């Protein structure tokens, strides 16, 4: 993808460094909600890069790994590396990425809905106390039923 991005600006001002790319996403029909970069330089397979993450309204994330030259060498959608065939033209590459995000949206939402969240260790629920209250209410109703049956029996005997 040929769009020179200010590599040094990714240290603290990722939204400003990525404003051209953000504008391309907006033109393609998908506006990023947040643009973030921790500014840390990482090295994998001999390539030094900084990662910029775009967050979208449907909770999908697109991570672009940017080399020191300002070129994007890898794109990751929701943590998975995706191939981008039109790397030379950034506008076409962004359009291709938007199509990938759109096609994977239903599957991503389904997977997100299926995730089971465990409550934190220190968090207690009201279920045990609620159970005690409901059992007490049941016993009170049982007592009222027994009293009503006794009264009925007394009325029928008289």
Oligomer: single chain
Low-pLDDT stretches: none
Using only CA atoms, what is the Rg?
29 Å
User: What string, H for helix and E for strand, traces the elements in order?
Assistant: HHEEEEEEHHH
For the biggest sheet, the summary is: 6 strands, antiparallel
Number of strands: 6
Strand portion: 15-25%
What gap, in angstroms, lies between the N and C termini? 97 Å
Average of pLDDT: 84
Q: What general outline do the C-alpha atoms trace? A: elongated
Count the domains. Answer: 2
User: How many helical stretches?
Assistant: 5
What is the helical fraction, as a range of percent? Answer: 40-55%
Q: Return the structural class.
A: alpha+beta
Descriptive key words:
alpha+beta; elongated; 6-stranded antiparallel beta sheet; 20% strand
Short description:
By secondary structure, the chain is of the alpha+beta class. Helices cover 44% and strands 20% of the residues. Helix 2 (19-28) packs across helix 3 (90-103).
How would you sum up this structure, described in words?
With 158 residues, the protein is of the alpha+beta class. It folds into two domains: 107 residues; 30 residues. It is 44% helix and 20% strand. It has five helices and six strands. Strands 1, 2, 3, 4, 5 and 6 form a six-stranded antiparallel sheet that branches. A hairpin with a 5-residue loop joins strand 3 and strand 4. The longest helix has 31 residues.
